[in-house]
Design goal:
six-stranded parallel β-sheet, 11 helices, 11 strands, Rossmann fold
């Protein structure tokens, strides 16, 4: 089994950065403390501290209160990079270009890695490594499930998170490539039988309630819509009851693949919602291989 544990990676980078004079911090900055996706990493951070109390390093888990606060995350990164006790940092960028610029401005001497979400390819040299899911492949799997359910194609709307989150953009591209059979299309306009409806993709800033409201509006404007591709599980794990209320009337259509929903993650109520027949397919991630445990 692959043993790419986040704290082990951050600690290894810190050891390579030079000897520590006092207890140093291995800082993990996530997109938002309100996002349950990162709770496994939080728990792993606390567990590592308990099991390594005598270490010269300690794990420090932080992030903005809200996942939608891109500027807040960048400010935290800037502040932590300026502290002399920060030995290494792992970042999950909600806005990849903004975080890249923050790193450039700070010009840190400590090693930095990205987790869950990466920097854009042109900024990859700013970090030592990326630890997380192959997001393009994840999106491609979502697209393959949607295509299998409706092989003749149809109309679709993509639900995304932060507009500049590299991991979500890669998932959306993977889904489009799977549905169209072509690579790199910015939108679907009949390729492979699939067309993205007007107003899509919808960016929800990882807000579950906003995602459900967006899908409500899209369905109202497009009553013959055939599918949703949800690039993060926010509407399902962030607003599970409103999600259920929205799609229970479509349960029969979902069961017959007349209406298809492919979504990312298996967090919170997502698996239960799938068992209730209110989502066609979920593509999960192996969080235990990213967290410490």
């Amino acid at each position: 089994m692959r043993k790419s544990l986040l704290l082990a990676a951050v600690a290894a980078m810190a050891l390579g950065a030079g000897p520590a004079l006092a207890k140093k911090q291995l800082v993990i900055v996530v997109k938002g403390l309100d996002n349950p996706f990162f709770e496994a990493i939080h728990q792993g951070c606390e567990k590592w501290n308990k099991e390594n109390a005598s270490s010269e390093y300690e794990c420090f888990y932080t992030g903005p209160a809200s996942t939608s606060d891109e500027a807040g995350e960048a400010q935290i990164v800037q502040d932590m990079l300026s502290k002399p006790d920060t030995a290494a940092m792992a970042i999950s960028p909600s806005n990849a270009p903004l975080i890249a610029q923050t790193i450039k401005s700070a010009n840190p001497s400590i090693p930095i890695m990205t987790v869950d979400a990466d920097l854009a390819k042109e900024d990859a040299a700013l970090r030592k490594t990326y630890l997380g899911t192959d997001n393009y492949l994840m999106g491609k799997r979502i697209g393959e499930y949607i295509k299998k359910a409706k092989p003749n194609g149809g109309t679709i709307c993509t639900i995304e998170g932060n507009p500049a989150a590299d991991n979500i953009l890669r998932r959306a591209q993977g889904m489009r490539d799977a549905l169209s059979g072509k690579e790199g299309l910015p939108a679907l306009a009949g390729e492979g039988g699939w067309t993205e409806v007007a107003g899509c993709p919808v960016f929800t800033n990882d807000d579950g309630a906003k995602g459900v409201q967006a899908m409500t509006d899209i369905l109202a404007a497009n009553p013959k819509l055939d599918a949703f591709g949800i690039m993060g599980g926010w509407p399902l794990f962030g607003a599970p009851q409103p999600y259920r209320d929205l799609f229970k009337p479509l349960a029969d259509k979902i069961a017959k693949n007349e209406f298809v929903i492919g979504a990312a993650d298996t967090i919170g109520d997502e698996v239960a919602i799938a068992r209730e027949g209110l989502v066609t397919a979920l593509v999960g991630q192996r969080l235990e291989q990213v967290a410490i445990g």
